[in-house]
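Kindly review this protein for my students:
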Amino acid sequence: MAVAIAQFTFGQNASDIYVADLGIVQGQFDVSNITNITKRTDGYDNQPSFTSDGNSILFSSIRKNGQADIHWYSFTWEEVHPVTRTGSSSEYSPIEMVGTDYVSVVKQEMDGRQRLWKIPLKGGTSSVLLENYNNIGYYSWIDANRVALWLVGDEPIIEIVDIATGVGSPITGVAGIGKNLKPVPNSQNISFVLDLGGKRYIVSYNPNTKEMNKIVDAIGENDEFVWSSDGSIFMGNGARIYKYTPKIDESWVVMADMGSSGISNVTRIDISPSNDKISFVNDYGTTANTYGQKAQAAVPTATAQGGTMLTNNQGKVVVNDVMKVDFTLDEKGNFVKINHDIAYTLKSVGSITPDLLVADKAYTFKDGTTLGSERFKLKSIEIGGRKIENVECYIDDNMSEPMIIGLKALNKYTTVVKNGNQLMVP
């Protein structure tokens, strides 16, 4: 597939990486022995990732050469050592490739491409893992053969890519996807934060069935969370770290309040494979000393004044005030249709209520759950900043597009016109 180059600004606030012991006290998780392992309150030290043996942490750090390099902290020696000293490029998001002597990274190359590379830990040659993906912002391994990519663009998307073939399958029809991707323990699912019109959830996505399920409401405004190997989720907010165990906890539980230790803003977080250590970033909220490094320019998002932008009769609309959906305009169409995945997501977040159902045959989703009718009313479709309310739609299993909007269908509710490359409500 052809992918346009899109540069991305990595966050470069001043930050330090902390580690702490994680234990069980009276049946509850406990954090103790909090230690700052980088001790550079004006520097950029970020994206900690435990190695598979739990004895080391890999992280990205900008030091005096002005580039982001991968560093390695040893618990045995309590020292930091560089893994890369590339000079002409920057490396971010290190993850050990389990069972190998390599670490995968997002390399920001001199020409602006951001590709997934593997770098040897014991000497040897680095190489590109995915040649044709030039706009990778973040990623996470699903298994040894597949990786989930968060791709930068006008609207960031996630693709599940086979490393051997380089072929990807995008998560379609859903906007507001957070950049932090985490594998769900004991499954092949990937999890991330989904922002649906200001309501933020941690969700899981099954790349085989393409089904998405809500796990729990997200905390605060950051996208960062991590799973422990036994199936608990940890997330930071302010000076606190919270824990949520699905099917056990009704809501988030405060696991640690570290304000007295000088912690003020927990962001990225990781847990050792044996669940006995936790690492986290304390973001100071001030600009890091990046030693003259120039940040890449972010890609601007195309907007239209007074209308919804169309490209080849395709665009995006906000549905029910909770999700942004890709749609195809059918200029002669009399119906509004959505596919299974969009309907399932709307149902999962409680956006299809009984009062919106239109009498028809029931609909059964792939997971066996049902909806009282395959036809229902969307609370609203937003066109060019104007909301069209109570728009009847139905679920069509035979369409590949997330949503098809018939222009004649919308005009049953209000006047909607196509003006050049814009869809407008005059």
Notes: The radius of gyration is 23 Å. The helical segments are 340-348, 407-410.
